[in-house]
Amino acid sequence: MQLKEIPDISLSAVKRKDRAGWLALFANDAVLEDPVGVSHLDATGKGHHGIAAIAKFYDDVIEKNETFDYEIHRRFAGANELAVFCTFKITLPGGMRISIDLVIVYKQNAEGKLESLRAFWEPDQAVPA
Questions:
Q1: For residue 22, with 0-12 CB atoms within 10 Å meaning exposed, 13-18 middle and 19 or more buried, which class applies?
Q2: Prior bond to 35 cis, omega within 30?
Q3: What is the pLDDT of residue 59?
Q4: Pick from 46, 26, 30, 36: which is nearest to 112 by CA?
Q5: What is the C-alpha to C-alpha distance for residues 70 and 91, in angstroms, rounded to an integer?
Q6: Helix ranges, 2-119 (H)
């Protein structure tokens, strides 16, 4: 899998609610930080380590959203990493719609799997869509 393809594959899997397809992108020892740092989604700020923790994040956060859509604005590649500036439009449980601008940094290992996914966004900057 080419590094520049990963955001499209990852985000389209989330949009389709393809849990297995999304999890298959990650290495067994991958780290997911979404958002990076301490937040209501990660009280420790240390991220979600390993497939089981990433699967739990999917079940607790991603799966519960009613709808998910995205637009990728720019991609910036360097070595085995790719930073993507994008906008998410999400309908949360209960029907509230939000828009979030964010930068996601994907890091790929030698086997082509995601070694890390780091999403930079500020929860208080999510705005009603």
A1: buried
A2: yes
A3: 98
A4: 26
A5: 12
A6: 6-16, 19-23, 51-57
The Cα 67–Cα 77 span in angstroms is: 29
Q: What pTM value is reported for the model?
A: 0.94
pLDDT tens column, 56-78? 999 999 999 999 999 999 999 99
- For residue 97, the enclosing domain spans 3-128
Q: Of 81, 34, 76, give the one whose Cα is nearest residue 58.
A: 34
Q: What 3-state class would DSSP assign to 1?
A: coil
Distances (CA, A) of 34 to 1, 42, 98, 102, 117: 23, 8, 16, 10, 8
Q: Distance (Å, rounded) from C-alpha 65 to C-alpha 63?
A: 6
CA distance 112 to 99: 30
Give the β-pairing of 48-49 and 114-120: unpaired
CATH number at residue 105: 3.10.450.50
Domains identified in the chain, total number: 1
